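User: I'm putting together a teaching handout on how sequence relates to shape, and I'd like one worked example. Could you take Zinc-dependent alcohol dehydrogenase family protein from Streptomyces pseudovenezuelae, show the sequence you're using, and then write out its predicted structure as tokens right after it?

Assistant: Happy to. First the sequence, then the structure tokens directly below it.
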Amino acid sequence: MKGLVFHGPGQSAWEQVPDPTVQDPTDAVVRVKAVTICGTDLHILKGDVPEVAPGTVLGHEAVGEIVEVGSDVRTVRPGDEVLVSCITACGRCRFCRQGMYGQCLGGGGWILGHRIHGTQAEYVRVPFADLSVHPLPAGLSGQDAVLFADIFPTAYEVGVLNGSVRPGDTVAVVGAGPIGLAAIRAAQLYTPERIIAVDLADSRLDAAKRLGADAVVAVRDDPEQLVADLTDGLGADVVIEAVGVPESFELSTRMVRPGGHVANVGVHGKPATLHLEDLWIKNVTLTTGLVDTSSTPTLLRMAAAGRLPTSSMVTHTFPLDLMEEAYDVFGRASETGALKVVLGEPRHDTLAVPAAA
């Protein structure tokens, strides 16, 4: 088969790799029908995640069809359409028993496209399939469902739940990329008074408006002052940091009110300064986290019921064999306007029936 192979910082290629096979009784092999690119994949290509070894197939999000399962797999079988979660879970270790699948000690956690071959390929082996793939609800397309492999559970769990968003809150989302946009959608479930989106790019601020942000502000236009003006000088109840650079983190800590929450979601490749000389007296709660994906089944049901619309987040689609082009478009999002790119099989909206002889 072919897959997108990491060859070191700044180097990757869509090339031939060995077909995956069932290695353990809990494995499943999935034929990939839809896959997307994550900001974390860009961090890997920059060299920010040194644990990823050259030769690894990247990717940790996919929708596909089960083609083979190990002898211990009970919940899915060949032919099932499934979501491949970005997190795998052994289900037995201390952290898995607490629902903290991202911290799995039994060989799971974030391993796809990180410590083992990932999903940006024609086929992928998924360990611990019973807890790590999810049958697709009826009526949910693969293009929509793939957004629930990572960005929606990440935004919901690490941003909205960790940030303790409550009715009537002012929520500031710093970064209107895919995770930030998903956080805007997910925060709406808790009826905050207002959601403010902050970003560098006007195109992403426009997307934030379409997805429900009540106010948007470019970094150049003093977001701290806007937040202060809208909250009578108090600051935001919750700030969700969804970028992962020192400047966005420090901006988030300046915009939060005393007693508020800063929920860091962004993947940081460099140190950021924590200004405790200012924060120590403000009763601010700061949370970090890797997604656990324990919310994925619930989010999938909500998406199937139309409670979490996703279609406007997918801006570009490609066939799988244009993976390198898709990376280029996604990596230049400020120029291309890309939010989420989805790769997969060609869509067949009409059926051509040959005329009778």
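A couple of points you could highlight for students: DSSP finds 13 helices and 15 strands in the chain. The chain has two domains: 2-150+293-344, 154-287.
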